[in-house]
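Lab intake sheet, docking and co-folding queue.

SAMPLE TYPE: protein with bound small molecule
LIGAND NAME: pyridoxal-5'-phosphate
LIGAND FORMAT: SMILES
REQUESTED OUTPUT: full 3D complex as structure tokens
PRIORITY: normal
SUBMITTED BY: R.K., bench team

The fields below were copied directly from the construct record.
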Amino acid sequence: MRDAQLELNLRALAHNFKRVRELAPNAKVLAMVKAEAYGHGAIVVAKALADADGFGVAFLAEAQALRAAGITKSILILEGVFTQEEFNQAAEIGAKVIVHQPEQLVFIEQYRGAASADIWLKLNSGMNRLGFKPEQAASAFQRILACACVRELGMATHFAQADDVESEQTPTQIATFNAVYAQLQCLTDRPILRSLSNSAGIVSWPEAHHDWVRPGIMLYGSSPFENQPADALNLLPVMTLSSRLIAINSVKKGEPVGYGARWIADRDTRLGIVAIGYGDGYPRHARNGTPVLINGQRFPLVGRVAMDMITVDLGDAHVELGDKATLWGEGLAVDEVAQCAQTISYELLCKVTSRVTRKVKA
Ligand SMILES: *Cc1c(COP(=O)(O)O)cnc(C)c1O
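RESULT FIELD (auto-filled):
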């Protein structure tokens, strides 16, 4: 039987969440569950993270899905809403919205419903993706203050390279944020809540924790830093992707393996065929030598990744048909596999496809 499966370890998730609490003891935690909780399943994860103070999603439909599943905690919509109707719906389900451009201010001003709205102004502190520029922030904020429907006031920004502790960009972003915050706070007696830190910020920039931190990748047990493995940060993998050996064949030295003959046997050896491929979300660009774990032992991927299968060089190791092969997760860090495929763990975790069987390990 083909047995490609994705297993979630909810204990690991709870452990990683506790690590966030340890690192940012005075902040509330907005657990990022956008993109199906980085491929883990937003509802499963949100239900498991009973201690989180709230959840972060990218857009309205993701917030609605959480509400429909019975999640009643705070939800922040990071890209905000795109139409008046969406704003009305966000207010109705009590989702907090980010406002990052003037067009979104109009939705608040024109809101005629009875609900109150929690509005977070997004500052572009230097990433230059979303947000008001520092010099635009005060006038945008005045317009928010003038709206009777607005209840909670917040201010957020996002770091571009908090994963690089040497970089000058993060301290510059923090200083920009602090200056604009001071300016806005002068405009009102109501508190303005602050949120800056993603996972890298939580670990490396405690001065940027403030009211709410926004951990994503670290909750799922992967490192936000290129040069620091997840276990050094005491994070545990939540997702384990595995399948089984469906064939073992021998090849002679000089024989090519797989599409395009990307690998040629450098000696007489045995090949293991594992039933997983890019049709399951295993990265097609994984290079020769990418580790695959079989019975606790690492074997190198050889030859091109196909849609349904990959090939590993078994040498004369003792393995059998049907043995379990771990592609990443427990025993093999997704970060290492991502590096071998010239990408980041985020992408691998997000891209596991629906034909992979999902299981939850309580
Ligand atoms: C995705 C996201 C995060 C989480 O980032 P990680 O690096 O996964 O911790 C935080 N804030 C915003 C605005 C995001 O889009």
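REVIEWER NOTE: Residues 32, 34, 78, 158, 198-199, 214-217, 224 surround pyridoxal-5'-phosphate (CB under 6 Å).
SIGN-OFF: pending second check by T.M.
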